Fold Sodium:solute symporter.
Amino acid sequence: MAFGNIDYVTLGVFIILFAIFAVLGFWASRFRRGDLSRIDEWGLGGRRLGWLLVWFLMGADLFTAYTFIAVPSSMLAVGSLYFFAVPYVAWGFAVALLTMPRLWTVSRNKGYVTASDFVKDRFDSKWLAIAVALTGVVAELPYIALQIVGMQAVLASLLVGLTGVVSKTISDIALIIAFIVLASFTFTSGLRGAALTGVFKDILIWITVLAVIIIVPLSYGGFAAAFSHASTASATVNSVLNHGKGPILYGDLSPKLIPAYFSLSLGSALALYLYPHAINGSLSSEDRGKLKLGTSLLPIYGIGLALLALFGILVYAVPNALQAVLKLGAATFVVPALISYTMPDWFIGLAYLAIFIGGLVPAAIMAIGVANLLVRNVVKEFKSLDPRTEATLAKIVSTVFKFVALGFVFVVPSTYAIQLQLLGGILVTQTLPSVFLGLYTKNLNGKVALAGWAVGIISALALVYEANAKFGVIKTSLYSTPLGPLYIAILALLINLAVTVIGSAIAYGAGWRPSQKIKEEEITKEM
């Protein structure tokens, strides 16, 4: 089948821009030169990124290939519930401003590379630090896998436009080549490579979002036409893409879903800066002030995300694009179809490349964050490593982890990858007491916090098990309560906090006193 205005000019632009992306990644090893045989130089960019690079780097984590595909497709197929992504990122940046400058300060003062480094000293607990590290690793794998799912949607659209069919073999080969390039420059350049390619990727992403959100409404009757067409076509969309589970509401939200909307927003906001890649990016800042400035400007990306979510509505204004999505039978084609049926061939190549590397750049940052955790907070707890060996092992782990995620996507259906990412977000939230509360109080007991983490993890798994018909298929991250459906991450976190806070109070009353390995001024003041 034809797919919009895609032709070989589109492919040529795509390949040329990918070549520029690769060159930037390899050249980045020379950017603000440092000894890349040290893990803080390789994995944190030497802690020398200015506010603008921090802004681009953290934005690269938000505007990912999966975000570009999932948010608009969920808006189209499910409705306004998925607009929760907009308040979630706004609240997430508020959480970041409250926590990341403090974590950056103590990490600089004490030489920490990961959040688990901080947890180990704050709670005087090796096992709690290992638990936090492994939770982050488990949560990150399906997150990287979902970036690949988004990249697959772009490749599938490109192949449909060029050949009329989707060739899984060609798509898989293209992904493998892209990941070999990514792994190569990440190995040599570390976080510097992710930062510079993140700038390139974000510039292309912003061009794409702004061009589509301006040109398409002006050319196709605007959102008035989109909502008008939605009133008549949403029943068909519901039947094909949502298996008749509707009705789909775009302009309002059912009162029954308000608890779900609020708890999804809050839980996702709390989880965002507990993921290893978000913490890793924050710790790369040159100083505390530049981290605050870069983070305070991140809501600009939130505006972009709100515009991106509207693509799921805007597609109704372009009947050919909507029909292509319905014919392919997958909401993941919403943004590729909207772009390919409304923009010129060369621009489609630019936009598709932006989305494609929108999966590669976050994958690099995530793999670096995972490598730092596994090497420093798991392997190093049981085997002494000199600085050069530590960095080399982190590079190897980062490379292996990327291809494990790629293999995960090849073996596991994309629907399961999506479901496991929901579970990953629920699990990583259970590290909040150890990481975030630990930044503000020293009066939590390490053994009790470990018990709270364990109870939170077990509770989360039990609630997911119950909500999804005994793990037959993980279809939802919500649990029905008397207040309405609530995000399981919030429910499990409340149980976790109750155990941690009450248990620590009991331990303190029984004579336990906190570790003094970290002085309070080491958290609040640059030294």
